[in-house]
Amino acid sequence: MCLAIPGRIVGLVPGETHLGTVEVAGVRRKVDLGLLLEEMPVVGDWVLIHVGFAMTKISEQDALEQMHLLQMLGETEQAMQEVRGYGFEETGEQSSGNPQPN
Amino acid sequence: MRSVLQLRTPQSGNGDQHQFGGLNGKPAVKTVAASVRFRDPQIEMAHGAGGKASRRLIEGLFAPLLFNNTAAPLGDAARVEIDGSAVAMTTDSFVVKPLKFPGGSIGELAVNGTMNDLAVSGARGQAMLVTFVLEEGLPTSVLSDEVHAMAAAAERAGVTIVGGDTKVVERGKADGMYITTTGIGKFMAHVVIDPQSVRPGDKIILSGPIGDHGITILLARGELDLEADLSSDTRCVLPLIETMAEEAAPGIRWMRDPTRGGVATSLNELARDCGLGIVLSEEDIPMRNEVRGACELLGLDALHVANEGQFLAVVAPEYTDAAVNALSQTAGGEDACVIGEVRNEPSCAVLVTTRYGGSRIVDMLVGDPLPRIC
Amino acid sequence: MRYVDEFRDPELIIKASEEIYRLADPDRHYRIMEVCGGHTHAIYRFGLKDILPSNIELIHGPGCPVCVLPMGRIDDGLTVATNFDVIFAAFGDMMRVPGTQGSPFEHKARGTDVRIVYSPADALQIARKNPEKHVMFFAIGFETTAPSTALTLMRAKSEGITNFSVFCNHVTIVPAIRAILDSPDMRLDAFIGPGHVSTVIGCRPYEWIARSEGKPVVTSGFEPLDLLQSLVMLLRQLRAGEARVENQYKRVVPWEGNRAALKAMAEIFQLRPYFEWRGLGFISQSALRIRDEYAEWDAEQRFPIPGTRVTDPKAAQCGEVLKGVLKPAQCKLFGKECTPEHPIGALMVSTEGSCAAYYNYEHRKAAMVTSISSVA
Question: Which other chains touch chain A, taking contact as 3+ CB pairs less than 8 Å apart?
């Protein structure tokens, strides 16, 4: 379900609240940013677009971390241990702890 | 996009073969297909979209009742013999909204489309008839622009427009105008197009990037609120085909311009006609970034998107290099490349493979490509 | 394309596939459900089955909003549009989905004003441009799509656009997963969690699956490397005998979801006591309706809805396929009466449905493998 695609915000539409122009591989469309009120994106940010709405801001750092993990897949056993310590434990912790309001 | 009756070789089913004619003048064998099988209760847009529904209409209604041995239809043009000499003949109707779009307009499309249908049948268009269906109230300036565009396109393509017909219909009935062009052409020497001659190991050549026309029109309609610097690829491909034929004529087995239904539909038709499998290499299929972006955004497969200035050719392996070299040294053929090959399996189907060893079947288009959210 | 191409890198894909081969116990058969139809589509589109061990069986879950929509709802929406001369606006996905009186496209051919929209906001725009007509947006989708419908309704209200309404068919994913797990013939080892739904609801709603059902869940992205990495993470959990919720799709999915989106949904929608799912039957508290405060924009409150109920054709075994008891090709109707062009069962109606995905991308490939092996 739910086709969504990353795009970069290239402009905010003047006079319109929460409307930005997003570019996906040279294709531009006005996208509603109203679902990102808690952390309004700025020009240059990457967002995930679904049915003309920005759903979430894409985290460059998390993407880089993921690439790092992927590149280390299948390396030596030692490296794999490192991967586990570095990445997966962290998500595990997150699922158990890290309570946030709401 | 192009619409209405387009003559196609009736498909061979799983077993029984219905062949109505062939370019090489083989006697056409008319077998069981004389029965009318078209059962759809009404005509829908899908019947003109070049995919499965179009095929059902042509094979189930038009072919059994209209097509006979003397007017043997084949891929994109018919071979007509008059007193022992053969000419190629084709017709095509153009209904496109908007009439003008980046990179072209309906008039230019109407000339190029018919020239291309002849060209991929191995024929040089010589003369063309033009029929206009005009909507009451159409501004003369709009019509005049299209006539100018047609004249210019005809001159570029080297074809003479020898006559035509004009009808006017009531306001609200023709989206401004419809144009039908009928072309007649002379076959090139040593070029024989016949899906039955296709063999495993033959290469599939594509003349350039796919999807430009279909995506341009989709965007130009404005309904999706998308913008991109993209223009239609409409052009006459005859110069490219002639150059290729000069170097590789004996190796050319089959050609088609992948218009409605895109590359996937054309190649599926080939696969069914020759009973073999077409295996494409995904990363080798040229595509502009914007076309890819629009397809990812809208959930479309670019292989289903229409082209108006590209062609596919199946070429024997020993002629492939010569054909690609000839194309890539010709203006407008720089991106021509081999995108796949013919194999025994999967029979009657098109398989797309990836560099990491994955693969998927790509079927004919069902109806028009629709943007999807899931 | 940034954030797309790097996750389709062939060398990394091969590496990830090799890692999966290393992790999968050859003596064990793994049944892993990808809940989301988008994952099903991606698995077929990228041909991922070709690079996975044969003992990893991917079961296609209920996460295709088009597939699970009962035919009666389509009939109801189209009846309203036809009888009240209303513009019927819907996503392209809906256009070929058959009702008992035909699909939206077939109604269009008979004269109903049917429009394809890319966004609910575009449906509202049609209403702005056609003040003399009423526009009904036929809303489908899970929690990913529901917030955009909510925001569109809020805009309609604040602008005072009254010639616009929503026929709401939004559904929620967790009750469907629960229904599948409650099914007695269901045997699953782990879940690939729906990534895009999770941008809204976060990862917490899946914790009960790990805790009470003892099955690992990894919320996953949709590119080949996302799915393969998720399988690596699931296999590691299974190997270690663990059951946790993990977030593979961190670049996009916040653990807590999107509070603004949840707030917009809460303002506009409330849970229906129950809703019918095609192939699964009635599931309690599994769908959304529009709150009374927005009755003016609720097509179900504005127009008389026939309330059509259509029983699924007996011969179509969609429920069994949905639960992974049968594979698509094992259904009696598959590829014969039931094809993407003439779908009978729910799972054939959308390209994301497991039967349609299998039919489009796979089934002749399967025939190819059979014929090759029979030669050998």
Answer: B, C
Domain boundary among C247, C268, C289: C247
CATH number of the domain that residue A17 is part of: 2.30.30.140
Say what the pTM is.
Answer: 0.89
Residue B218 and residue B98 share a domain: no
Q: What is the DSSP letter of C13?
A: H
| Residues from chain C contacting residue B372 (CB–CB below 8 Å) | 91-93, 350-351
Q: Which domain range does residue A15 map to?
A: 5-86
pLDDT of residue C344: 83
Residue B102 sits in which domain range?
Answer: 75-187
Are C173 and C145 in contact by the 8 Å Cβ rule? The answer is no
- Closest in B227, B288, B296 to A28, CB measured: B227
Q: Are strands B277-281 and B350-353 parallel, antiparallel or unpaired?
A: parallel
Mean pLDDT of C171-182: 93
Angle, helices C259-268 vs C146-159, to 10°: value is 60
Give the rounded percent of residues in chain B with a pLDDT score beyond 70.
89
Asked if A62 and C250 come within 8 Å (Cβ–Cβ), the reply is yes
Cα(B359)–Cα(B345) distance, integer angstroms: 13
Q: Is the pLDDT of residue A91 over 70?
A: no
* pLDDT at residue B4 is higher than 90: no
Q: What is the dihedral of CA C355, C357, C363, C364, to 10 degrees?
A: 140
Q: Which of residues 87-106 of C touch A (CB under 8 A)?
A: 91
